[in-house]
Amino acid sequence: MTQSCAEIAGVTVSLDHWIDGRRVSSPERFSNASPIDGSDLGAVSAAGQAEADMAVKAASKAFPAWAALGPQGRLPILRRFAEGILARGKDIAAVESLDNGSLLMGNLHRMVPRAAQNISFFAEWALGLNDHVIDHEEVINNVRYDPSGVAALITPWNAPMMLTTWKVGPALAAGNTIVIKPPEWAPLTCSLLADIAHEAGVPPGVLNVVQGIGEVAGDALVNNPDLARISFTGSTDTAKIIGQAAARSITPMSAELGGKSPFIVCADADLDAAAQTVAGQYINAGQVCLAGTRILVEKSIEAEFLDKVRAAVSHMTVGDPREAATRVGPLIHPEHFARVAGFVERAKAAGGEVLWGGGQADAGGLYFQPTMFAHVSPSDEIAQKEVFGPVLTWQTFASDDEAIAIANGTEYGLAGTLFCGNEARAMRIAERVVAGTLWVNCFFVRDLAAPFGGSRISGIGREGGTHSFDFYCDIKNIAVRKGSFGAAGG
Questions:
Q1: pTM
Q2: Is 28 considered catalytic here?
């Protein structure tokens, strides 16, 4: 079958799958449009059962040789992979901006370097995994991190390249082979990733990319009994479906899911820094799972802080994400625009006061105004459910206990942000907020060695550093009785 490609921002991108070291085309296709202006980006191959099974079979065949290389043998290949991402940084940034509406400059200067680091960091980290020895009075325990097999990696549309490499890095460094299922609303940079991996010398079958609609391609993939691991980033509702499939084969699953994170501002905080950080929650049109969307402000500073936030938000220019002055681009898809608008209209009907924004931006299309609601009850839908758009709520608190109660008053527990001028007070609050990550006087600072994941319905498991390998590896303990081999035991 003839392979298909598209010219995206001057970059040639394959619209077909990558399976066993070659492009594979499907008779079924799905349309892909840019959220920037609705322009057609091409008809992408849509996988079904056959392609999903083909990819898992290819990964299974490639697994023994890739695993046998060991961390040291895989290191130079993965270093070249990371270098290839950097070398094609301008291409990746331009394609991702057109494909999902993210800021071009943000992609170029933050996303691409982080994507490359996701590969190189875990390749280096894997070198020391098997150095863990536990000395017991009777035995020496040698703890090993062995490759587990084929991992299915299902990635989201809000930052496809960065969040895909966040999974690819540790999975490949662990010695696993992988099948990537890109998001159907933004699949193109995962296709570029396959090309880069191939050019770096990643062997056929080690990295596969199967495109398609989640209910078809994703379902076929996660129900394959030959998977050793399933890693998913996306919505809680989809995770429940994937979890049922994983349970049928007792396949370990990791899930990083939605959030409704609190952003707590104490009266003694650096209010200028806090206000700028609140405005930053609108970046990527609010399509960030970690965003602090519930602004909780100490009552005594409400008026002063609101003025500062309003001033900071006034500089959040909405427009074409390829323009340097733009801070808020479009929402990803008409369906998602309708979802965000629905939340806003229901909040208005429930009595929420719109402090600013509240509807489609002047740019039209999928562009939505940065929006803030006040007079919101903690039990209101807009304060309870993840909107995943540029919509924040404004609430106040009179005591730390009240702030913590509001912060913990949802089903979620992904992240939180706290601005506070007193270290002891900050730590007392931070320790009581339910969250996988709690930033104090900063936001979105992520060390790859640190654990990351969600509590409650925001996720299962942790990633980062050794935590990633705890998931992607089969951990084995070889317990050897001391002195049992005698002098000639070597």
A1: 0.96
A2: no
